[in-house]
From TrEMBL:
SMART domains found in the cross-reference section: RRM
Species annotation: Chryseobacterium sp. B5
Cross-referenced Pfam families: RRM_1
GO biological process entries: negative regulation of gene expression; positive regulation of signal transduction
Compositional bias (Gly residues): 105-115
Protein name (record): RNA-binding protein
Highest taxon of source: Bacteria
Keywords attached to this entry: Repeat, RNA-binding
Residue ranges of every copy of the RRM domain listed in the record: 3-81
InterPro entries registered for this protein in UniProt: Nucleotide-bd_a/b_plait_sf, RBD_domain_sf, RRM2_NsCP33-like, RRM_dom, SLIRP/GR-RBP-like
Lineage: Bacteria, Pseudomonadati, Bacteroidota, Flavobacteriia, Flavobacteriales
CDD domains: RRM2_NsCP33_like
Length: 115
């Protein structure tokens, strides 16, 4: 089973392949992915690496946490599982999240509503 590692405070110059090569010296890397901004196509400054085993992952965490990459001290630790049920708002199958009864159309105030 693979172990997922979070890598933060990455310089924008880091790519998937350079991230993988940095971790490969500690053991077999199943995957390495730098998170990219959808709109700009630029790195978000963090990524995830999946290592072949927990022992290899721990060795990589110990060896790379705090290491300076292009003048930035990177953060390396075990990735936390995604939290289900967290919502940043926006549209969901239940409709628009973030509904408030005191704002919007038809509640008086500017833009019409009840008189």
């Amino acid at each position: 089973m693979t172990t997922k590692i979070y890598v933060g405070n990455l310089p924008y110059s880091v790519t998937d392949s350079s991230l993988e090569s940095n971790f490969a010296e500690f053991g077999n890397v199943a995957s390495a992915k730098v998170m990219m901004d959808r709109e700009t196509g630029r790195s978000k400054g963090f990524g995830f690496v999946e290592m072949a085993s927990a022992e290899v992952a721990q060795a990589a965490i110990t060896g790379l946490h705090g290491m300076s990459v292009d003048g930035r001290s990177i953060v390396v630790n075990l990735a936390r599982p995604r939290e289900e049920g967290r919502s940043s708002g926006g549209y969901s199958p239940q409709g628009y999240a973030g509904k408030r009864s005191d704002v919007g159309y038809g509640n008086g105030g500017h833009g019409g509503g009840r008189y």
